[in-house]
Specification:
single chain; about 425 residues; mainly alpha; 3-stranded antiparallel β-sheet; 15 helices; about 55% helix; about 10% strand; binds zinc ion
Length: about 425
């Protein structure tokens, strides 16, 4: 507060030459970058902005290729399974549809959204913005479409789905003959193409950082919050928070994510509650020749290892048990460290948060495997695989931890440090 008053007089009208780090809120001056390089935060090492001159053409070409592959992947047969002269051929949509028909519409819908709908929306949204930029047109709704792409990207789980496909194939090989369809090859190609395409899709393309450099006389120090400045999450513009909305892209402005601690705690508590039924109740029932019994996540892993498929068993164990527990523990640790106003290794804690955000979605692999197996293995008396109630609990847990990670605000780690430092400072003054 003291600092805000001191610096208040020197504040310039425009903050175009400044940027606030989205992960720690430190203020930085923007500088012109050499080609194909990026600027990183000096305090927490988050990437601030990039300069990739050829990104537009490349990204546009990659997105068009990805769209073509996506259409092929969704129209042609995906996989065929042969058991005793009978054949079951699936398209991509069969998995979620089979789950919905079996009355498990919650996970059916989740699979449909994360493996088909969200990737398609991300692709179309990106293509629209890149196309307009290439044609030199100002895209109507630029801010809203960019926000949609940004929000849906963490929920577009093509890579996780591909891992599930590989595991499902290996699992099925010991029970039947598996044949890959055209769609599977298109889908496999879609993964690297979409990853590369998304790498080039950056806010710097639509809102390049203006480099003011040393011309700006105002040299800010510390967090943007103390000057009442908010970092726009969509276009990275630095704006007085009192304006309410970003003048450039229309995004709602706030200094910190609203009610971040309370919301993250509530989501984590619910996710922890779901963890127990998810692991104790049956997640899947494999029936062969009329015989079979329900298995839990852990007994499924044991079965895989006992059958000699220990790499697969380890992947499933890691994705469905280690990742969710680590994620819960990491987020609880981060919340507690903020509430304790810890000063311990803020860079590492910010890094821990970054990792937590990325790994969480890989737990969805189990749900995708269930969807694939349910739709493929439906040979009545011969062999069937049916999802169990634990699948819903497990999916709920994964979704809640993913939302919890997104509602967490890593800038609070740094705020707590500053508060701590300010308190120590004032205590020293009192003693002196
Ligand atoms: Zn930072
Ligand atoms: Zn903005």
């Amino acid at each position: 507060m003291m600092q805000a008053a001191q610096h208040g007089k020197e504040e310039p009208r425009a903050y175009s030459g400044l940027i606030a780090c989205h992960e720690c809120d430190a203020l930085h001056r923007t500088e012109s970058l050499p080609e194909n390089s990026s600027a990183h935060c000096g305090r927490c090492d988050a990437r601030l902005y990039r300069h990739i001159p050829a990104a537009l053409e490349r990204s546009l070409a990659l997105h068009l290729t990805a769209l073509l592959l996506f259409i092929i992947a969704n129209t042609f047969p995906f996989m065929s399974l042969k058991i005793g002269g009978r054949v079951e051929t699936d398209i991509l949509l069969s998995g979620p549809m089979a789950l919905i028909e079996l009355g498990m519409s919650d996970i059916g819908l989740l699979v449909l959204l994360t493996s088909i709908v969200f990737p398609l929306l991300v692709l179309l949204g990106s293509l629209y913005l890149l196309g307009c930029l290439r044609l030199g047109i100002e895209a109507p709704g630029l801010g809203s479409v960019f926000r949609m792409v940004q929000h849906l990207r963490p929920w577009s789980l093509i890579g996780v789905f591909m891992l599930a496909v590989l595991i499902a194939i290996v699992k099925l090989l010991d029970m039947a003959q598996v044949e890959a369809g055209t769609s599977l090859f298109a889908f496999a190609a879609l993964l690297p193409v979409m990853t590369l395409a998304q790498q080039g899709f950056d806010r710097s393309l639509f809102w390049p950082q203006e480099a003011v450099g040393s011309e700006s006389a105002w040299l800010p120090t510390g967090a943007a919050q103390q000057y009442g400045l908010a970092h726009c999450h969509t276009c990275a513009l630095l704006v007085q928070v009192s304006q309410g909305h970003c003048p450039r892209c229309g995004d709602h402005l706030h200094l910190r994510k609203p009610e971040s601690l309370t919301r993250t705690w509530a989501l984590l508590a619910s996710a922890t509650l779901l963890f127990f039924p998810a692991n104790m109740l049956p997640i899947m029932t494999v029936t062969r020749f009329g015989q079979g019994e329900p298995s839990t996540i852990l007994s499924g892993v044991e079965h895989l290892i006992a059958a000699g498929m220990w790499p697969l068993g380890l992947i499933v164990f890691f994705a469905s048990i280690v990742v969710p527990i680590s994620k819960l523990v990491a987020l609880i640790f981060l919340l507690l460290s903020i509430q304790q106003r810890s000063t311990w290794r803020p860079e590492d804690r910010t890094r821990l948060y970054r990792v937590t955000e990325v790994i969480g979605s890989w737990s969805m692999v189990d749900i995708f495997i269930i969807a694939l197996l349910t739709s493929l293995v439906s040979f009545d008396a011969l062999a069937t695989i049916r999802p169990g109630i634990a699948a819903s609990f497990f999916a709920g847990m994964v979704v809640l931890t993913m939302i919890a990670a997104r509602s967490f605000d890593s800038r609070l780690i740094w705020d707590a440090m500053e508060q701590n430092a300010a308190e120590v400072g004032s205590m020293e003054q009192e003693h002196g």
